[in-house]
Write a structure and sequence with these properties.
The radius of gyration is 31 Å and the shape is elongated. The protein is mainly alpha-helical.
Length: 604
């Protein structure tokens, strides 16, 4: 819908009301949909809530990082047996087996048959002695000798500590595959051995096996009640690597494509006009380029965007062939094609077309606004300000310019200034609904509840048939806690425009929050997907509800779909992040069902 798409230009906060930037909104919805945890579905939410807490407490984070670095150093060392705290030199322990007697004085030379003849206690005693000697060689950084001793210890006793200690030696020599092998053996013997998990996770990370590394770090976090600072910070680091690597590779390989139909419609509706129609002058027929441009406008009105793109591409080609001579709407042609490139995330091509439009017509306000969208996508807010200032110079009384200025101020959290811009836009164009919607949102944001309700009431009197207005009014009510009233507003929005998927999704969320009516919520979201099968928010909502219901396979299917639908690399990183945290949690639950209660207790 229009308010959804108009705010592609600016980032919003994580509240329901401010989910106007799709990338930010969809991820915030994934991570904090506020539905009650019906099953063990909180690991991904824990990860991001803790991450947010760390962001708000930078000093504490620095302290934790220092603590993590210290912990990391200690994690690299070999495990010391209880009572074996004195760090003698390797040579000083040469006679430590002298009291064993017989062939046991040289355990390294004992045959398998001799070892098998030993009692269990005797074998363990020799193994511990060999392990202690190995620890001291490890401390002296004589890793080859330490490996030899740990290997001998394993002949006497398959103790997981011996495998883990030998893995520490291999880690010191950067033999990561051997680290993985030994830690895996240790974990077969002791599945909850955190030090082995940590070592294997580090080895997986060193070999770019980020998904396996994330799982091991995650498991360590759960086993230690999320108090293992090193495991937590390492999980965050690996998750970031995993998501960014996959997103970058996907973006490099994929072909440009349009976002969902509902998103495009919302974006286009956020402008007062997509372009002025070309009209034939007396005695002069329209140029081929202008004719194709008019055709593109008609196709946009019919929401046939694929054919509209084809028409505007042909129009631009015809304009180029004519060198823009005799082309009435050359500026609009290039601007419109640039806008479609922008929607496909082909930013360089979009910029080239928009610059061409401004070269033809330096006062083309619509292009300045579209180019400001592009700069916002690049997070260049100073560039956005410059473009909007140029637009204001060209048309000082243009309502859209003030609306867009308000959006940028909102992003900068300059709420009073944003409200003034929205009010100015509404006064300049009383029939422009979006400044009124955003004015109500910003009033709610700063705690002016009565003013916000009055703004929406006035808008609904003036625009009684605007579905999007009721949808965002419902979001205000839901955020305020008026779930029943919010549901009524969403129902009204659907009644006015059943082709818009967003109120279906918002109503589904409200219903699920109010009474956990799963059947109705799922029906509403599926209705949204019938309206628009590529609606990003519907896919995100469905994945979240599936997750809360413990339907992990179904949730992961939707999360994979969310990754495919992500428009930008940033959105894709967010979707991959949640997919991977969910997958890690699901794997833990399957591999450690006996620890489910522990996991839930740690996250409460």
């Amino acid at each position: 819908m229009a308010s959804e798409a108009v705010d592609k230009q600016v980032e919003k906060s994580s509240s329901v009301l401010e989910r106007l930037n799709l990338g930010e909104r969809s991820w915030k919805f994934y991570a904090a949909a506020s539905v009650p945890p019906l099953v063990a579905a909180g690991l991904a939410l824990w990860y991001y809530s803790s991450r947010g807490a760390e962001t708000s407490k930078k000093d504490d984070k620095k302290k934790r990082q220092r603590k993590a670095r210290k912990a990391k150093k200690s994690a690299k060392g070999a495990d010391e047996a209880e009572g074996d705290e004195k760090a003698g030199t390797p040579d000083a322990v040469g006679a430590s087996t002298a009291t064993l007697g017989g062939d046991e004085e040289n355990p390294e030379e004992m045959s398998d048959a001799q070892i098998a003849a030993l009692s269990k206690d005797a074998a363990k005693k020799i193994a511990q002695t060999l392990k202690s000697r190995g620890n001291k060689f490890f401390q002296a950084k004589r890793y080859a000798k330490a490996i030899e001793l740990y290997t001998q210890a394993l002949r006497f006793d398959k103790d997981p500590v011996f495998f883990s200690n030998r893995a520490a030696c291999y880690a010191a020599d950067n033999e990561h595959e051997k680290v993985i092998e030994d830690c895996t053996e240790a974990l077969k013997l002791e599945p909850q051995y955190v030090k082995a998990l940590m070592r294997r996770a580090q080895a997986y990370e060193s070999t770019s096996r980020f998904r396996d590394s994330l799982y091991d770090f995650t498991t360590a976090c759960i086993l230690e009640d999320f108090k293992n600072t090193l495991a937590a910070t390492s999980a965050e680091r690996v998750l970031k690597k995993l998501a960014e690597t996959e997103a970058r590779e996907r973006v490099e390989k994929r072909q440009p494509r349009l976002p969902s139909k509902s998103f495009i419609t919302g974006y286009l509706n956020s402008f007062r006009s997509n372009g002025a129609e070309a009209t034939a002058e007396e005695g002069a027929p329209l140029s081929k380029a202008d004719t194709l441009y008019n055709e593109a406008l008609e196709l946009i009105a019919a929401q046939d965007y694929a054919k509209a793109i084809e028409a505007i591409d042909n129009a631009a080609q015809a304009a180029e062939e004519a060198d823009a001579t005799g082309v009435q709407r050359a500026d609009d042609i290039y601007s419109l094609r640039g806008m479609f490139h922008f929607l496909k995330s082909s930013l360089d091509q979009a910029l080239a077309d928009m610059d061409k439009a401004l070269e033809i017509n330096p006062s083309h306000v619509r292009t300045y606004l579209r180019k400001a969208n592009l700069f916002s996508e690049k997070k260049d807010l100073d560039g956005v300000d410059r473009l909007l200032d140029r637009a204001a110079e060209a048309e000082p009384e243009n309502a859209e310019v003030f609306f867009q200025k308000g959006q940028v101020r909102f992003l900068k959290q300059e709420f009073a200034e944003a409200a003034a811009d929205y009010e100015r836009a509404a006064s300049l164009d009383p029939d422009f609904v979006y400044p009124r919607i955003q004015l109500g949102v910003v009033q709610f944001k700063i705690g002016k509840m009565q003013e916000a309700m009055a703004t929406f009431d006035e808008a609904m009197k003036k625009f009684p048939t605007r579905s999007d207005l009721y949808n965002y009014y419902g979001e205000v009510l839901a955020e305020k806690g008026g779930t029943d009233s919010a549901i009524t507003a969403f129902e009204k929005s659907i009644e006015l425009d059943g082709s818009n998927p967003l109120p279906y999704v918002n109503q589904a969320i409200a219903v699920f929050q109010a009474n956990a009516d799963t059947d109705k919520s799922l029906t509403l979201i599926r209705d949204a997907l019938k309206v628009d099968s590529e609606c990003e928010l519907a896919v995100a909502a469905l994945s979240q509800i599936y997750l809360q219901l413990g339907m992990f396979d179904e949730s992961l299917t939707m999360l994979r779909r969310a990754v495919d639908l992500a428009k930008s690399e940033e959105e894709m990183v967010s979707a991959i992040t949640f997919r991977e945290t969910t997958a890690a949690q699901y794997r833990f639950m399957k591999e450690h069902p006996e620890l489910l209660s522990k996991m839930m207790g740690a996250m409460q």
